[in-house]
Amino acid sequence: MTEEFSNHGQSSYFGFETFKSRSMNNTTVALNNPADISVIVIYFVVVLAVGIWAMVRTNRSTVGGFFLAGRSMVWWPIGASLFASNIGSGHFVGIAGTAAAGGIAIGGFEWNALIAVIILGWLFVPIYIKAGVVTMPEYLKKRFGGHRIRIYLSVLSLFLYVFTKISADMFSGAIFINQALGLNIYLAVIMLLLITALYTVTGGLAAVIYTDTLQTIIMIVGSFILMGFAFDKVGGYEQFQARYMTAVPSITGNISAKCYEPRADAFHIFRDAITGDLPWPGLVFGLTIQAMWYWCTDQVIVQRCLSAKNLSHVKAGCILCGYLKILPMFLMVFPGMISRILYADEVACVDPDECMKYCGASVGCTNIAYPKMVVYLMPNGLRGLMLSVMLASLMSSLTSVFNSSSTLFTMDIYTKIRSTASERELMIAGRKKQTNISDFVCKKKILTQQQCAPLTDNVLNMLVKDMRPLSMVEGAGFQQMLKSFNPGYTIPSRMHFARLLDKKYNATVDQVKSRISAIDSKVALTADIWTSVATGRYMGITCHYIGIDWQMESICLSTMPLEERHTAQNIAGWLQEILDKFEILPDKISAIVHDQHRGCCSTTTVGPLSDAQVTHCSLFSPLLLNTRSLPKQLELHDALLSILKEVNLLGQKQHQMGTPEHELIQDVSARWNSTYHMINRLLE
């Protein structure tokens, strides 16, 4: 299907013509209708709103808050940001173009990332977190020592970001802007950079991650819509397979058929190791090594994982990113191949003159495969949505690079230039001395309820671990100390901590029940009644079991005050309450160790364990056994000494008489002839 272009300019940017207007069946398709413009405007407004919201709700006053989002991110924004940081406009242009030229094998690059991103969450990130680093050069410095390696790798990373990531994304974004808007490329690029830098510089990593999440949703929804239109236009998947193999340009000149006919293995991911354009050993082994570098050591990727609340959120985010990386095969590869079917003369052109006419490049026009479908296939409104998708992919990758580059420069380079730099100075350097727009939005930094929650939880953990009274939180000195740590934090009331303590206790009970239910073997209980210094009586119940590493483990189930008479019936009832609370069945108990209290001893005949096969062991019984056995042990000791003396005397007599010095033979009941040998030795 050949499309006629009614008017195209002659100036070229980045090697591609700037199309002012296009017509298809005498219908203008330039993005100048109210529906498309409205969608694009709404997109920019929503992105800026999300960026400002992220700036207001996150702590950006510290280096950790600005560069690592306060280490407070949960799994789903992390997974979405990992995906958006990786998927740039270069993917929509480059992957779709490569698929149009060579088939689905390029999708293997995306699926290979599934392995690498899982290795990132399970192997690499735990090491980075344990090392307490912010940047990858910082980790290598800690791992191998020396200061030059840190500076060298930081400078190298900055150069690579500028000359590979930023330039590639801007180039591919320029192709789409050429095809869709007909705007001056340099003006459009400058506007995008300004908008991108606005919320990146002012909002820090938190703003980048939240806007990346929005960009991910826009990219996936818009790309799915385009994929649906594309398959509908081509006639379904079977027609897609058949028509792709015959999609050749009408003008070929004297060029060999190998240059314009689709490859015979176009629908094979794993291709011949010798003749394939993407041989399977390189795809499986070579690409995996490259993916390990990108997904496990690149600052852009790792920095998002380091912003997580804990390792569980890191792993869940990596899993989400892995699932999202399945989509490019369907959202980019297949549409790129369909574009070759629909626009074979332009996308699959091989004649240099024809290619110059369509895209301004003599070597081929496969890079316009995806933009061309957006411009010509989508109706008004949805065309604007797809432009938003391309802008989202471009801006998400740019924000990621900007933030990570700022982190590398500030933490690895500027700290060497200014070793005594204050945190405020590092923040200014990280923002590249630009004005912080949040000063106009939020005059006073007061922590939100979500930001206060981790601090309140830490205070509660301190009260529990150190067994401090809840009244401690009302102390003026304690509150002043917390204010010095974080002026924006207001400690809750004592009653609030009491409610949190109940929730924490219930959560701990559930954890203990899960641990006990997971034990395959039986457990033993220790019941002890004791009197405190204040003459209050208590009963403690402790559970003991052998863990998976064959080590004894103990859990204190309860320490309850005995406000009633501790008779056998009452003790049995209290014990039943504890067993019910922790869901411990009588047949799971092997033994109960208790003291000589009369009530405890009587629990063998009353209560929940009266009919169970449970061994009751009094705590004083072993002591009594040892005491009663001491006289017997002394008698045995004296007998052994007497026998030894007689044996020595017998040896002396044998020596004096000149007879062989044979040892005595003892009668052993387990040996039938031992008595006979004993008598013979005695007669001898």
UniProtKB/TrEMBL annotation:
Record keywords, A-Z: Cell membrane, Disulfide bond, Glycoprotein, Ion transport, Membrane, Sodium, Sodium transport, Sugar transport, Symport, Transmembrane, Transmembrane helix, Transport
Listed InterPro entries: Na/Glc_symporter_sf, Na/solute_symporter, Na/solute_symporter_CS, RNaseH-like_sf
Protein name: Sodium/glucose cotransporter 1
Superkingdom in the source lineage: Eukaryota
Chain coiled-coil ranges: none
Gene field: slc5a1
Molecular function via GO: D-glucose:sodium symporter activity
Reactions listed under catalytic activity: D-galactose(out) + 2 Na(+)(out) = D-galactose(in) + 2 Na(+)(in); D-glucose(out) + 2 Na(+)(out) = D-glucose(in) + 2 Na(+)(in)
Pfam families documented for this protein: SSF
PANTHER family recorded: SODIUM_GLUCOSE COTRANSPORTER 1 (PTHR11819:SF151), SOLUTE CARRIER FAMILY 5 (PTHR11819)
Family (UniProt): Belongs to the sodium:solute symporter (SSF) (TC 2.A.21) family.
Source species: Gouania willdenowi
Subcellular location: Apical cell membrane
GO cellular component terms, semicolon-separated: apical plasma membrane
Stretches that traverse the bilayer: 37-56, 76-105, 111-129, 149-168, 180-201, 213-231, 278-296, 317-338
Membrane topology, record value: Multi-pass membrane protein
Signal peptide (residue range): none
